[in-house]
């Protein structure tokens, strides 16, 4: 690995800027000793390749990934979470090349679930999308720095997102284990309850939805959620794809008490999140000839009264529970996705290195 | 304070082709067009295909399109393309 020698911490910070390594904020200098510490913790060959990160197709060796994790402020134990996120983003269905290069504003949202949430102190409650938690911040930022330094997603050069996204500094939340009345996200996606996992989905920033669930009926909550989700200028309404609803814990509790599961909530929202073709057709963001255009989902694409569904397939609605309990306002968030062709939800188990305990038995960290 | 050794975090770019091959194409061979289906390119791509058809004749132009703009064309599409065309023009950018 190429190395650079500097004489002071100040020079190291400035050198990172000069080399174009940063996202605009200062970074922890990726010193050889910190990178070696990460490699030793992971027990990996530093030259082993996780994959190539598009669009530049930079080779993601463990040492490059670890260097970016160090810069983001990760401790070694955060690194397996970042590695799981990288593996998830490299799944074909995520289409990372497009996610990185699109003119759209989407950014990969990292959703952490399972026991790791408490073990590494991820924030899954108040201000879940905001700052304040080291784990959320450093994992989210490490993912971004990897996309930047290895994938080459520089704004205005390869990343052509016209509006950008504040989540391109860091975009990582965690599912609350205690307040989630439903099946954990990673279990829905095929892993065991005792596993920890990362699910990535490329989405817009979170749109707050005040459901009033502390005072409202389930029907009212569903109406508010559905209506707030199906705005005609969002990509998902026009071109489908996966999307995320972050159900606040109060709203989740209210819906669960009234018999809703994640599965029945998906169906209920699919039934309600539909708009007339005449209205959706006012948006020319996607052209009717485009393979993902909403008109292809209709029996008669020329019928202005036909109802266009935001949720083409219930499995495209990712539901997780996070956020503060709040008052009766019952806040939730909706993150529209990109489209049918990419940014789709991908999950990877987090694999922690095995350690030998005092009795000589293997034990994960 | 001892000097600090910084590790370069920038990934080396993977290369599969060392040098662009020289294109040898005679006017009577088939040309394939592989449209990426990006919304911003419909008009320019349609015009490109029209111009090609004027130049080499409609029967010598084989149009293909990707369903997913942002993912590589499926292997099935590529194998069909290489069976019938000696030159391919692909849509890049957005």
How is this structure best described in words?
- The complex is a heterodimer of chains A (365) and B (94).
- Chain A has 13 helices and 15 strands.
- By secondary structure, chain A is α+β, with helices and mostly antiparallel strands.
- Chain A has 2 domains: 208 residues, no CATH class; 132 residues, no CATH class.
- In chain A, the strands form 5 sheets. In chain A, strands 5-4-6-13 form a 4-stranded mixed β-sheet.
- In chain A, helix 2 crosses helix 3, helix 4 packs across helix 7 and helix 9 crosses helix 12.
- Chain A is globular, with a radius of gyration of 21 Å.
- The model of chain A has no long low-confidence stretch (mean pLDDT 95).
- Chain B is of the alpha/beta class.
- Classes of the chains: A alpha+beta (365), B alpha/beta (94).
- Chains A and B meet through strand 1, helix 1, helix 2, strand 3 and helix 3 of A and strand 1 of B.
The amount of beta strand of chain A, in percent, is 15-25%
Strand order of the largest sheet of chain B: 3-2-4
Low-confidence runs of at least 5 consecutive residues of chain B:
none
Distance between the termini of chain A: 28 Å
Using the alpha-carbon principal axes, give the shape of chain B: elongated
Uncertain runs of chain A are: none
From the structure provided, what is the oligomeric state, counting identical versus distinct chains? heterodimer
The share of residues in helices of chain A is: 25-40%
Q: Tally the beta strands of chain A.
A: 15
**Major beta-sheet overview of chain B:** 3 strands, parallel
Strand order of the largest sheet of chain A: 5-4-6-13
Q: What is the element string of chain B, with H for helices and E for strands?
A: EEHEHE
SS content category of chain A? alpha+beta
Average pLDDT of chain B works out at 85
* Class from secondary-structure proportions of chain B: alpha/beta
User: How many individual helices of chain A?
Assistant: 13
Q: What's the shape of chain A? A: globular
Helix count, DSSP H or I runs of 4 or more residues of chain B: 2
Count of extended strands of chain B:
4
């Amino acid at each position: 690995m190429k190395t650079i020698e500097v004489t002071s911490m100040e020079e190291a910070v400035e050198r990172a800027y000069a080399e174009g390594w940063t996202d605009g904020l200062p970074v922890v200098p990726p010193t050889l000793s910190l990178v070696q510490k990460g490699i030793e913790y992971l027990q990996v060959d530093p030259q082993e390749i996780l994959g190539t990160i598009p669009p530049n197709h930079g080779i993601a060796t463990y040492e490059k990934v670890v260097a970016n994790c160090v810069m983001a402020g990760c401790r070694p134990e955060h690194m397996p979470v970042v590695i799981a996120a990288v593996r998830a983003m490299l799944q074909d269905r995520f289409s990372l090349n497009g996610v990185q290069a699109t003119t759209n504003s989407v950014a990969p949202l990292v959703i952490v679930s399972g026991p790791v949430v408490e073990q590494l102190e991820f924030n899954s409650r108040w201000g879940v999308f905001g700052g304040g938690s080291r784990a959320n911040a450093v994992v989210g930022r490490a993912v971004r720095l990897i996309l930047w330094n290895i994938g080459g997603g520089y704004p205005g050069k390869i990343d052509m997102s016209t509006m950008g996204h504040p989540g391109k500094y860091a975009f990582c939340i965690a599912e609350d284990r205690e307040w989630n009345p439903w099946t954990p996200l990673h279990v829905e996606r095929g892993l065991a309850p005792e596993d920890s996992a990362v699910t990535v989905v490329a989405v817009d920033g979170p749109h707050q939805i005040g459901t009033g669930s502390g005072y409202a009926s389930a029907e009212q909550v569903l109406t508010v959620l559905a209506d707030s989700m199906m705005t005609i200028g969002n990509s998902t309404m026009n071109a489908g794809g996966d999307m995320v609803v972050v159900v606040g814990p109060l709203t989740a509790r209210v819906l669960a008490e009234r018999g809703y599961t994640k599965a029945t909530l998906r169906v209920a929202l699919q039934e309600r999140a539909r708009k007339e073709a005449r209205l959706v057709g006012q948006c020319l963001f996607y052209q009717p000839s485009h393979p993902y255009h909403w008109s292809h989902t209709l029996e008669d694409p020329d019928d202005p009264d036909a109802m266009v569904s935001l949720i083409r397939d219930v499995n495209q609605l990712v539901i997780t529970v996070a956020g503060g309990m709040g008052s009766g306002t019952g806040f939730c968030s909706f993150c529209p996705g990109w489209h049918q062709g990419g940014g789709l939800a991908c999950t990877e188990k987090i694999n922690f290195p095995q350690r030998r305990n005092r009795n000589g038995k293997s034990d994960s960290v | 304070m001892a000097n600090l050794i910084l590790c370069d975090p920038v990934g080396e770019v993977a290369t599969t082709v060392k040098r662009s091959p020289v294109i040898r194409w005679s006017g009577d061979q088939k040309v394939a067009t592989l449209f990426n289906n990006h919304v911003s390119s419909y008009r320019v791509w349609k015009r490109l295909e029209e111009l090609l058809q004027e130049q080499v004749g409609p029967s010598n132009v084989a149009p293909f399109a990707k369903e997913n703009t942002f993912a590589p064309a499926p292997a099935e599409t590529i194998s069909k393309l290489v069976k019938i065309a000696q030159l391919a023009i692909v849509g890049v950018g957005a």
